[in-house]
Amino acid sequence: MFKKLLKILIFTLTTSIILGATFDDDCEEISIYLKEKYNNISYCYYLGYPGRLNKITINNDGSFTKDDFKKIFSYETLEQLTIILENNKNDPYTLYPSEISQLKNVKKLDIINNTGTAEITKQFAFSNTLEDLNLTNFIFKMPLDFPNTLKKLRLSNVTFEKPLEFPNTLEELSLTDITFTMPLVLPNSIKILYISNFKYDFSYIASLTKLESLNIEFKSDIPSNDKMSPLKNLTNVKTISFADGGKKITEIPEFIYSLKNIEELNFSYQAIKKIPENLCTLTHLKKLNFYNNELEGTLPECLNNISSLSYVDFSSNSKLEGNALNDVGEWCNYDYTYVKFDPDMQCIRNVRNNSSVVYSKYEKRSFIFNGLIWLAMIIGLIVAIILIIKYCRKQNIKGKNNGMKIFSLILLLVVVVLIIILILIILYLIIMLFTL
Questions:
Q1: Could you tell me which residues are beta bridge partners of residue 320?
Q2: 234, 215 Cβ separation under 8 angstroms
Q3: DSSP, res 284
Q4: Is the peptide bond before 50 cis (omega within 30 degrees of 0)?
Q5: b/e map of 344-367 (b: 16 or more CB within 10 Å)?
Q6: Buried residues in 191-201 as b, exposed as e (16+ CB within 10 A)
Q7: Checking CA distances to 289, which of 23, 35, 153, 267 falls within 20 to 30 Å?
Q8: How many whole angstroms separate alpha carbon 265 and alpha carbon 286?
Q9: Tens digit of pLDDT for each residue in 353-396?
């Protein structure tokens, strides 16, 4: 009797262990559940052991069912969710599964439509834990209510046909190709703002008294100084950057000179031709970046009066001349310019320590000269070979009796090349003599 009870107990325990066995991680469990559809999960990340689902990216081609979404959303440890729409059927549930609003720990949500612009006629509901939201390629026919926990919002190619109200918790906002049919009201809580192809009056931005960082990208015509003048009221802004990839500015906007507390200016990859001396009035500047512009003329010496400068980059401005600024210590870059500098400055050494190639005026000439030497040698060899071939054909050189003639021709070839090199060296020395 005892043995029979023992067997039953062992069988029960074994069955319980088998039935209650857990997968090594949640991603493995999801892959087994979805089977071949798991190929549409481009990213699945888990934490701990056994692994608990933390981040997942779903490429929805229309094959995901409600049960599939419910299975994925059943993991309460999910914090970051990305849904990329690859097949727009305009099904409200497919566009935005309602279970998203029930996720208890999701903090970051990306809904990206890669099939054009989808119309949303159903209310989007967000979880009350959401902090970071990204919406791309949508037309909202219904009002959109953001959670009061939201801190970061990115909107790209989105049209709002109903009034839009941002939460007062918002600290970072990115607006790219946005259309509002109603007046836009931005919360004063915003500290970081990125705007691209902004079609509204800049007074909407000028009211943001807590704004610290502004990044602007112009995709069409660059607005005039008068239109941008409201931005001079951004007295607390510390950083202004003009983004690469859009329409390039050719001069520094006038409103910049009114921002006396500005600390960082980034004009990289623009088409600015001149640095006005008005820039020297911004005495709190710490970082100044003019990398890859069209600067010409002399570098203003008055920039040395800005004692707070610790980072300057004037590299890739082939027409810029003058003397380098005083050693700013942290970083200074004059690559591919004609600016004269002391290679022993600490800021220059920092650039070299980061494997940057620094060319002075004479190093650039040396580089060009070496290229001319190689070019001349190649051309000289080609010309000499052609002359030898023509001479041989003319003289109808045959057999061993002409060995002396061939040796003479080779010697002539060497002499021709040496003479070309000697002429180039003499020309180079003459050029250097008149440009020192």
A1: 297
A2: no
A3: T
A4: yes
A5: ebebbebbeeeeeebbeeeeeeee
A6: bbbbbbebeee
A7: 153
A8: 9
A9: 664 444 444 444 555 556 666 666 677 667 766 766 666 666 65
| Integer CA distances (angstroms), 177 to 19, 155, 156, in order | 53, 8, 6
Which of 345, 235, 231, 328 lies closest to 287, judged by CA? 328
Per the structure block, which two tokens stand in for 9? 């107990």
* Rounded-to-10 torsion of CA 197, 201, 204, 207: 120
Other C-beta atoms closer than 10 Å to the C-beta of 411 total: 10
User: 57 near 82, Cβ under 8 Å?
Assistant: yes
- 344 has which bridge partners? none
Task: Tell me, yes or no, if the pTM score tops 0.85.
Answer: no
Contact call for residues 142 and 120 (beta carbons, < 8 A)? yes
> Quick one: DSSP state of residue 144?
-
Structure token digits, residue 272: 């600015």
CA–CA gap between residue 364 and residue 338 (Å, rounded): 9
Only one residue has tokens 């890859």, namely 292
Both tokens of residue 33?
Answer: 């559940």
- 100, 127 in Cβ contact below 8 A? yes
Spatial distance between the Cα atoms of 317 and 310, rounded to a whole number of angstroms: 20
* CA distances, 80 to each of 45, 58, 86 (Å): 10, 11, 19
- Residue bearing tokens 């054909």: 393
Q: Compute the mean pLDDT over every residue in the chain, rounded to the nearest whole number.
A: 83
Say how far residue 192 (Cα) sits from the centre of its chain.
17
Q: DSSP letter at 192?
A: E
Express each pLDDT in 271-293 by its tens digit: 999 999 999 999 999 999 999 99
Residue 409 φ then ψ, to 5°: -65, -40
The SS3 of residue 159 is strand
The dihedrals phi and psi of 174, each to the nearest 5 degrees, come to: -125, 120
Q: Which two three-digit tokens encode residue 43?
A: 């990213």
CA distance 296 to 275: 9
> Which residue type occupies 61?
D
Strand partners, 176: 156, 196
CA atoms of 272 and 408, how far apart (whole Å) = 59
pLDDT of res. 222: 87
Task: Return the structure tokens found at 21.
Answer: 């066995």
Instruction: Compute how many other C-beta atoms are within 10 angstroms of the C-beta atom of residue 326.
Output: 17
The domain defined by 19-274 carries CATH number 3.80.10 = yes
Q: Judging by beta carbons within 10 Å of its beta carbon (0-12, 13-18, 19+), is residue 281 exposed, middle or buried?
A: middle
Backbone angles phi, psi at 119, to 5 degrees: -90, 130
